[in-house]
Amino acid sequence: MATFAIQGDGFVYDGEPIRIISGAMHYFRIVPEYWEDRLRKLRACGFNTVETYVAWNLHEPKEGEFRFDGIANVERFVRLAGELGLHVILRPSPYICAEWEFGGLPSWLLAEPDMRLRCSHPAYLSKVKAYYDELLPRLKPLLCTSGGPVIALQIENEYGSYGNDKNYLNFLKSKLENGGMDVLLFTSDGSEDYMLQGGTLPGVLATLNFGSKPEQAFAKLREYRPEGPLVCMEYWNGWFDHWGDEHHVRGFADVVDVLDRILAAGASVNFYMFHGGTNFGFYNGANHIEHYEPTVTSYDYNALLSESGEPTDKYWAIREVIGRYAELPEEPPATPAKRSYGSVLMDERVSLFDAFDSLGGAVQSVVPDTMERLGQDYGFIWYETDVSGPQADCEIMLQEVRDRATVYVDGAYLGTVERWSGEDSVKANIPESGAKLGILVENMGRINYGAKLHDPKGITEGVKAGAKLYHQFLFGWTMRCLPLDDLSGLRFTPLSGETRAEEPAFYRGFFEADEERDTFLNLDGWKKGVAFVNGFNLGRYWEKGPQKTLYVPGPLLRQGINELVVFELHGTSSPRATLQDTAELG
User: Fold this and answer.
1) Which residues are named in the active-site annotation (predicted)?
2) Is the pLDDT of residue 527 over 80?
C-alpha cells in the first residue's frame, strides 16, 4: 500500500517529496516480448514513471466482447513496469486521441445513427459504463493504494479541445471514484483559455500539453490554478507523419532546451513520446483540419527510442539533462543488431475477385451500407451493382466515400476516388447490355481528433450514375466485408504470365530465418496495400511515403520457413520484396 498526493506545489509519494519525470509508451504499439526491453531503457534514461493510454477499441473490439490478452494485456504491462521500479500513470479515458484509430473509441459506436460522442448523451454513457464495469475491476489491484504501481488516472483527454459538457466529465469522475479508483485524478488540456475552461474540473488536478514555450503555458495555467503542482502531461518532443508528408524530425538541442526550462520551473513532465512504436494492422488514425489526412503505419514520432527500440541521439541528450535533476540508474540494455534476410520472390498469387468467397460471405441491400452498420470495424469493403446501358461518358459519382475507392466496370479498373482530393467521380462507357459496377473502399483510419470525430466508413451516402448535372442513385447492392483478419482460406496459385493491370491481388512468398531478429520490409516497386508476416498484419504501405519500410519485430518470425503475404491494390512491376536491416522513414 502506498499513497501519491499533492502537497503544496508538488507531489509526495508515501510522504516523501517526488517530482514525476515520465515517458509515454503504449503497450498496444509494442509486441509484448519487447515490453521489458523498452521499460528498462526508459528507466535507464532517468525516468521514474511510465505513462500509457488504455485503448477502448482494442479491449472491446465487438460490443460486449472483451480482450485482455497478448498485446492487449495492459495488466501485465503495468505489473512489469512496477517490478522494474517504475511508477505508472494510466489514461483510461474512453477517448485517447494518440493518432490511434478513432481516438480509441470502438467503431461499433457508429452503428447507431443517432450516436453522440464525448458528451452526456445517454446512449454513449451507457456504452462507457459497460466498458468501465469490465475495465475498472482489472485496474483496482494495480493502484498504488492496493500495492500496485499506478499513481494517477486521467478523467478525459484534451476534452477542452472538443467540448464543454461538465456533466460528462463529472460522470466519468464519478465512475472512476465509485469503481474504487482511489488515486489522484487529473485532466490534460492545451493552454488556450477555452481549452482550460472546457476541460478541467474543480478539485481535480489540471495538467497541460505543449511542445514549446513552457513559461507562457504555465503562466496561463496559474490564471486558473494559482496553487498546486505544475505538470506538462504531454511534452511533444517529436511529431507524427501523414501519408504524403515529409518525415517529421525535431532536433535534440531544441528538445533539451525546453525540458531544462520545464524542470527548472520545478514542474513535473511526461514525454510524449518516449517510445512511439507501430500502428500495426489497421489501427492508425487520421486528422481532418483542412482536409482528411491518414497517419502512416510507423509511430516512430522521432522519439527518444526509435520505432524498433534503438536509443537515439535525443535519448542520450535527454539522459544528460535528467541527470542534472535526478540520480541516473544503470546504462540501458544493449539492442540486438537487426538482420537482413534478403530478397523474397512473391511467386504465388490470387486475385481479390477470385478470393471473395474465401474471405467472407455477401450481403444484399437496397442501398450501400457503411462498414459499421454491417458490423465491420477495419479493412476494406466491396460494393457491387448493375448499371444499365447504353450510357456513353457515364459519370459514376461516389457521394461521401470514406476513404479511398478503386472503381471497376466488369472487372476492369476505371479509376480511383480519394476523399481528400476534391474529386468524387470517374467516367465509364456503359455498353448497351449494361455492366457490373464494382467499388473497393479502403478505410484509411477513422479521424482521431477534432470536430469531425464522427467518421463512419465505406460509402456513407450513395452512388449516382449519369451525365453531368443529371444523375440517378443506383440501388440494389451486393456487399462483401473484407477486414482481412483471416487469410488462411486463400488459395494461391503459381504466378505466371500477364496479370490484368490494376487488379487487386494477394501475393505470397516464403523466406528462411535462422534466428528471430528484427528486420524491415521494403516494398520498392509496389504501390499500395497491406503486408502480413506469418499471418500478422504489419500495417499499410504506400509508395507516396514518407514511410518506405515496415518494421518487422523479431518475435513475429520463426526459425525456419516464414510466410510473407502482400495485398497489393494496383499491381507491381516486380513481384519481389526485400527484408533489410535498416529502416527508411523519409
Assistant:
1) 158 (proton donor), 234 (nucleophile)
2) yes
Q: Which segments within 355-450 are labelled E, that is strand?
A: 362-365, 380-387, 391-402, 404-409, 412-418, 425-430, 435-442
Q: Which residues are catalytic?
A: 158, 234
Cβ proximity of 407 and 495 under 8 Å: no
Give domain limits for the chain: 19-322, 342-349+487-580, 367-475
For 342-349+487-580, CATH gives 2.60.120.260
Q: Render pLDDT for 470-495 as a digit per residue (tens, 0 to 9).
A: 899 999 999 999 999 999 999 999 99
Give per-residue pLDDT as tens, 173-182.
999 999 999 9
Q: What are phi and psi of 482, to 5 degrees?
A: -130, 70
- Domain at 367-475: CATH architecture: Sandwich (2.60)
pTM above 0.90, yes or no: yes
**151, 157, 160, 163: CA torsion to nearest 10:** -130
What is the chain's Cα-based Rg?
A: 25
Q: Report CA dihedral (199, 205, 208, 213) to the nearest 10 degrees.
A: 130
pLDDT (average), residues 347-364: 96
CA distances to 32, 70, 123, 234 from 24, in Å: 16, 20, 32, 8
- Tell me how far apart the alpha carbons of residues 407 and 443 are, in angstroms, rounded to a whole number: 15
- 273 touches 237 (CB < 8 A): yes
* Peptide bond just before 226 cis, omega within 30 deg: no
- pLDDT > 70 in the chain, percent: 100
